[in-house]
Each structure stands twice: as structure tokens, then as C-alpha cells.
Records
---
Amino acid sequence: MHTFHMDIKPGNFIVNDEESLLLIDWEQSGAPATTLAPEADGTWDVNEKNTDEERRVTKLIYTKYTGPDRRNMPEGSGQESFNVWNVFPEWQASCPRALELAEVFALGRTMWMLLSQTADDFDDVEHPNDVRISWGNENNLPLHWITMVEKCMERDPNERPSVVELAEFWEAETCI
């Protein structure tokens, strides 16, 4: 859709009359540390490298930013790096695939929260790496659901499914 949400979290979904989830709150004003992709924390830059010209295969290459201080968020937005340098508008222009895979991570983290019914105190989370993923022993979720959600939260964005692949997965599940 050539846009981004940036604030994907359980509270930004509602259930409509057809019992489908709708993503709401498209203000694009802040990313929560609980669902933010670790590589989108404002400390990384990304480039897409061609690995197979013939098949049009590319790989995202992330490098730690080491230049001078930079800011594209208003003063007072917060101390965390993602509140100083917001990668979402930058990646939308320069590397849309990186932006998409960061949003897939946020969807994965949100699905994990909803499916596992995790009620941890997420108010203390300062960085995405602070969240510890656990499914608990008492869930009765299909294993392939857990596998897909975990793929969405892969540390290496190159290993995550695309938004289209994720949508196709859930569409197939609703047809069963």
C-alpha cells in the first residue's frame, strides 16, 4: 500500500461485524518498544543488495549508524533512539522492503501477545530486545500458527515472511 502504520499493537485492532480484525489509529506518531522491530530502533541503516540478478533476489544489509547525531522527531518525543531518529519515513523512501519487514515484526509481536494472552507489564519495556517470548505450556494453538508468528519475529528481517505471505497464510486458515 506504499504506507506504514508504525504503531501496530493489540490496542490498535478492533473486531468488526464480520468478526475480522481491523487495524485502526493511523496517526503514525510513535512506535511502542513492545512491538517495534529491533532493527527499527533508530540505530541502524539499511541497504538492499542484489544477490541473484537473474531471479531478482535481494538481501537487506543492516549497518550500525556511527555518524553524527541525527534527529527527525520533535524534541521531547522521548530519550530512546527510536524517539530521536524515526526510520519509518526514511525507509519508506529508500528501502520499502525493510519498512515492510519491520511492520511484519510488529504484527508478529502483536499476534504473539494476543494468541499467548501474555499479560506481562509491558510499561517497563524500553527497547524491543527487552521482551521475552514465551508461549506457556497450556496453549492449545495449532503448531503452524506458532511457527508463522515466530517467523514474523525472526531476528534477521530477511527470514521474515512478506506481508502478502502473512495475509495469504491467515486467509487460508479462515477458509478451513
Note: Residues 147 and 159 are 13 Å apart (CA to CA).
---
Amino acid sequence: MSAIDAAEATELNLNVVDPKKKRFRNIRSYWDLYLIMLPGILYFLVFKYLPMWGVVIAFQDYSVFAGIWDSEWVGFQHFRDMFADDDFYTIFRNTLLISVYKLVWGFPGPIILAIMLNEIRHMLYKRSIQTLVYLPHFLSWIIVGGILINVLSPSSGIVNKVLGLFGIEPIFFLTSEDWFRTVIVASDIWKEVGWGAIIYLAAIAGIDPQLYEAAIVDGAGKWKQIIHITLPSMMGVIVILLLLRLGHVLDVGFEQIFVLYNSLVYDVGDVIETYVYREGIQQAKFSFTTAVGLFKAVIGLVLVALANRGAKKLGQEGIW
């Protein structure tokens, strides 16, 4: 055997390594990265995956005293009760409408804001604007709710005072069925649009500057650069975030609704989260509300699977 053949054989033997040894060697080499991952993994195991065992009570007449093992098995009875409840259809409609409104009006918001911030060249001004639009995300809905109640007050709120200057009668925004959903959607966009723009700004930062230089040489203005370079380069991130958002299409946000709604707007503002709170916590119907939650999760899973399949057919990567 020549020296060259011996070297090739040695290299081949080195490449054929036992997978277990290779995995162990990889962990030893990057132990610090795995250590950083550990809290996130534990979070999902403890708070996301282990509680999934409790879904079984959706098929039981669960009793706190009997526990999961000894509670009576009732099969799909709670699901039949759910679909037989006339109030559930109203609540499902409210949840779907508010969620769709948030998706249609709120999802493009961070994209537009990120593109606008990217066009600002004065760094001090840009950072000041970023700070102002990020800040509402860190406020709890209790604080935001208090602000909205005062700002939209029909007697002392600044909004109605401005409307009064134009001869418009005071509007009871938080007790009007015509305005309540608008307030919910608008306040959610105001609170989260800045935070959502962070990911899109990162995607824009990864675009090759030479593409813009070439476009300028070809005579393309800012608008054409955005249409033909910025948006296509962001499309992968946009699709992934849209798919993830569809998985939470029935998650309107309990805290926001609970803080702002009242009995006068139940017909348009009562959603699945508040329904589960009243039925599950206040009336101790744990099995019934678990069935409602499972139904909501299945809807989200189906939507994500269908949207992911559609994204792949359109040439995008998708989630899996």
C-alpha cells in the first residue's frame, strides 16, 4: 500500500466515528452553549409538555378529590356540551373576529415600521424613535387599561375633548358595542408594533448592501428598492412569523380583554379566554373548559399545518 493510500485510509477511519462518541465529543466541545440552552429546555418541559398530560381530564368528569386516576370517564360528553351551548358560538365568533382583525391590521404594522425605521439615517433620532415605540411592550395591560380608561373617558378623556371641539357628542368607547373591538385591536397594535419590528429590523440588517447600490446605479428610487429588494429579502421571515401567528389565531389575550371589557359589551367582547375563566375557575368546570382549550389548540394546529403546506407550495421554507 502506498503512502497516499495509507493516508486516505487513515482519514476515512477518522471520519467514520461512532455516533455516540461523536455526540459526546460535540457536547464536551460546546458545553457552554448547551448550558445556555438548558433553562429554555427546562421551561418548555415543565410548563409546556408535562402539563399536556392534564388534557386527559377533557374526557373525564374530573373531581379534585378523586384526581385524574379515579375520575369518571365520560368520553366526548364535554365536547357535545360545548357545541350544544348557544353562548359558545357567540364567544367563538367574537374570538375569531377580534383575532382576524388583529392579524389583518396588526401583522403588517411591524413590517411597515421596520422599513420606515431602516430609512432613518440620523442615528440619534432613529434610536429615540425605537425606544419610544418599544416602550409600550413593557407595560402591563393593567397599566395600559388604566391609561385607556382615562384617555377614552366620555367626561374627562382627551379624545372626547378633542371630538367636542368639532361638535361631536361624547362617545362611550369602552361600553359601546360599535367601538369596543376597535379599541381592543388599536390598543394591541400600539402596544406590540414596536416590539414586533425588532425581528424585521434584524432581517433587513442581513440584506447585502450591494443590492441597494446596484439598484441606485440602475436608477431605482426608494420605493422600488423597498418593493424589489427589501420585501423579497424579508419574505422568509415574514412567512415564518405568519405561520407561528396562525397557531395562536384563537389566542386573543385574556389580560387585555379582562381589563377592558364589561357586561355592556359581552355580546362583542366575550372571548374564549374569558369564557374559560368564568366557567373553569369561577364555576370549577375544569373538564369542560379543558375540552374548550383542547378544541382551540386543535384549530391552531390544523391552521399551522395547512398554512405550512401552502407556504412550501409557494416556494417558501415553512416551519418544518
Note: The first strand starts at residue 60 and ends at 61.
---
Amino acid sequence: MENTEQTLNFEHLTTLNVSIENHIAHIQLCRPEQLNSMIPAFWSELPEVVQAIDFYSAARVIVISSTGKHFSAGMDLSVFAQMAEDFRGEPARRAEKMRRSVLQLQDSFNALEQSRIPVLAAVHGGVIGGAVDMICAADSRYCTEDAFFTIKETEIGMTADVGTLQRLPHLIPQGLVRELAYTGRNWSAKEALSQGFVNQVFEDQQSMLKAVFVIAQTIAMHSPMAVAGCKEMLNYSRDHSVQDSLNYMATWQAGMFQLPDIQESMKAAKEQRLPEYKALLQMHPMMKTK
């Protein structure tokens, strides 16, 4: 953590535990008795934490994991109960309010994608409904042998609406996405690995977290500027043509390609030591929303 101890305070959180050490932020879902279902507080706490870590450059990698038997049972029934209250009143205004509600839920997971910091999801047990939406917004996914994934929304009579259907087709074949969405069947860790949805499968959570933190530490050793540039370019290229992406890359380099980190890398190699890079600058206070 880089001189932000007095700024960040996560003691008020009710759905997440957060720790930051060696430039790695560990966010844990912490309601195991309730299968880490996503109650209303979760949808504001997750983006609050991710945006605060990014805003203050408090870490260089974020690892998301969970506690208990399952990663998450997805959206809690209390959220559906709240949304049911929106189905009252004049149809146009009711629909406009509903649309804004869905956009707010989407923004909770958009925060993972929009952060300058790579996000690694380490999941176990059931990854259901909204939990699939969430990890689709991560940069990389890892799971245990007992993990299974379910686009649960179809089974309960609705269309998944906070990211799965938009991001998953960029991660696995279209035909498989459609099968999973139409049927709502469980998707095993083995199948997820074979289709490239997860990077690796581990015997248990302990071995998974150990390995994922090694990956996170490797990322954290690199220039934060270079890593942030990689994430920006990869996200942009997913949504644009090759030519547009190349043009954006050239424009990015015109401003972001500077020598200090390169010189530090070369000096460290010559001196046979690990490079020491400066953190990304904190965002301007006017940009802080919470």
C-alpha cells in the first residue's frame, strides 16, 4: 500500500473483506452463511472498493475471492423484491426508472473493467447468476475443481442483464454461450478450462489462491504504467476494429511512451535486482465520486 493508509477506510463494509499488501488488494466476499448472495449493499460496496483502490493507486493488482462453500449464489432475492416495487405507476416513467436501475447494477461490474488495475477472479464452488456476470468483467479467471458456472437467470424467467451476455461471447465460442444461456445448465470447471473461460483449475481453494497470488505478484513487479496501458489497449481492441485499435495505440504511445520506467528496468537488470517503479498518480480530487 503506497501512503494511502490514512485515506482508505473499509471498516464500514458488510459484504466484503479488503486487505492490501505488497501492492496486491485482496477483496473477499464475506457472507458465507448466505452463500455470498449479492444483497443491495454489495452492489454499492464492490464498485466503491474497486474505485477507491484505483483512485488512490493503492494497489497494482486486485484479487477477488470468496469465503464458505460457494463463491456466490448470485443476486439476492431482496434485490428482486426492491426491483418489484418499480413495477408500479405510469408505464413510461416506470420503464425509465427500471432502465436506470439495471444500468446502476451494470456499473457495479463495469468498475472492474474500467479500473486501471488488473483484476484476477479466483472462484470455487457455485458461481451462479450475477456471479458469472461479475467474473466476466475480470481480466483473468481461475477456479477449483469443484467450481461450476450457471447462467441462472433463464431458469427463473428473465434474461441475464448485467454483463454475461455482452462479455461472455468475447471469451468463449458463440455456440456454447447460447447453449449455456438458453438452457441455464451447470458448466463444469473442466469444460470452462477447455473453452478458455478460466486460465487454470486447481485442486482446492488454498492451492488456487497461492498460485493466483504468485501471478498477482508477478504483475505487481512490472511497471504500473505499462500494465495499465496493456489493459487499456486490450479492452479497446475487443470493442473496435484492428485498424482503429492500432491508431489508438499510436496515439497512446505518443503521450504515454516515456523513458523513466524503461531506464529503471534496464538499470535493474544490469544491477541484478528487481526494478522499483513509481505508482500511478492518484486521480484528481474532482474525479472522486464517493
Note: Strands lie at 16-21, 24-29, 61-66, 119-123, 126-128, 140-144, 148-150, 187-188, 200-202.
---
Amino acid sequence: MAGTTPALDAAGTEALDILARARADRRPCPPVRTILPPGDVDAAYAVQSAWVATQLAAGDRLTGRKIGLTNAAVQAQFGVDQPDFGMLLASMDCPQGARVDTGRLLQPRIEAEIAFILARDLDGPDIGPDDVLAATGAVAAALEIVDSRVAGWDISIVDTVADNASAGLFTLGQERRPPGGLDLAACPMLLWRGAEEVSRGTGAASLGHPTIAVAWLANTARSYGRPLRSGEIVLSGSLGPIVPVVPGDEFTAEIGGLGQVTAVFG
């Protein structure tokens, strides 16, 4: 992983162990915000970085990033007021057509997003939306399956950051489009569970424009020594409220100009 993994103090080590046990035992844990310094996002990112390092050491591979909490409706759901980011690993990628195993998840929920596939590094100072567009090779419709390890999704910003921004799994639609000529802020999103519409929104739900969200990520990740690299996938944030998932569910999202993406849960 790009950047240096910071050494954890006793509190960070304890938080890392609690979250790791929740994953291994398949049992949600209490919030870790009572262990880490109150409101200390830097300490939470250190825990996240340490967990990702263990996965890479075990043979997993970094494939991109996810931006969380960009949507005002999602922020309201969880009582937080700022975005965060996490790391996408190869093991999280669910190909279209493959059934998603809910046994890999603890408390899954789903959201529709626009994925950016980078053709160039985003590693300069003061990255802006135009820089994001210039560095993007293609965009695609995506579904992110988020999954908190904290019981009851009782999370603060510290809890979700330490928990790799509540990352679970993700899947990308097959259609790829160059971003030029697309109005990514205005594009409509509809999400169905079977024939029932369960969420809707537009690209503007992600910090006003998805490129603004990716620019925020590029600048923030660089400040933590983890700049965005060519070839990475960036999930740019939810376009509508997130929806609980149970085995047997089938979700389809359609994003204007980007086509459809589907996830079927077993």
C-alpha cells in the first residue's frame, strides 16, 4: 500500500483487535469510539491503515478507494457530518453475474454510486474537479455493499473510519463510458429491490458533484501518504439512501448515461 503504515499505540491496537475479532468471529462488536481518543479521525485512519496492511501481507491486493458519507441523507442516517474514505481490495470485487455470498457479511446494506476508473495518477497538490476528469479513463455504474462491524450500525466518524469506512463488497456494471460529455451531477439514479423502487437520487447527492467528491478524496488521501494511482477504481459516494440487504434479495440500479448494475444475494 502506498504510504507508511503508522505504528499504533495501545488504544489503536485494542481497536484493531476488536474489529478484527468481529470479522473473524462473524459477530458485530461494540463501538471503538470509546477506546480511541474522542473525535480523533487521524487515530482511526491509523487503525484502518494497519488492518489493510495485514490484508495485503496475507496476499490481498489494493484495487482502489471508496468515499463514504458524501450524501446528506446518508449522513443523517448515521449522525455524522463529514465524508471519509476506505480502501478497496481485490477480494471485495464481485463480478457481474456472480451471486454475492451474504455469509461474507455481517450487517450488509447497499447503495448505488458512480465509479471512476483512473487512467492517470491523482497525486498533485490542490486537486480539483477538472483534474479528476482529466485523470479519469472511464466511469461506470456501481453498487457498493457496505457492512459495519459495529453492532447495530451504531457508528460515529471514528468508528466507521477505523472500520475501513464500513467497506464490504462492490460490483461494477459492464458498461464503461468516458466522462467527457456526461453531466455527472444531473444523472438520475434509481435502485430497485426486485420490482420495488427503494432508493433514488442524482449525481449531485455526492458532495454536489461526484468529481468534487473524488477531488476531496485525492487531496485527503495524499495528506495521509496514500495518493490515488492510475488503474485504481474510486467509488465516489452514494447517490441515495442506503438500503438493508437480506439473502435472496436482487438489486438493480440504473444511472443515467451509465446503464445498469445488478447484485443478487445468496
Note: The radius of gyration is 17 Å.
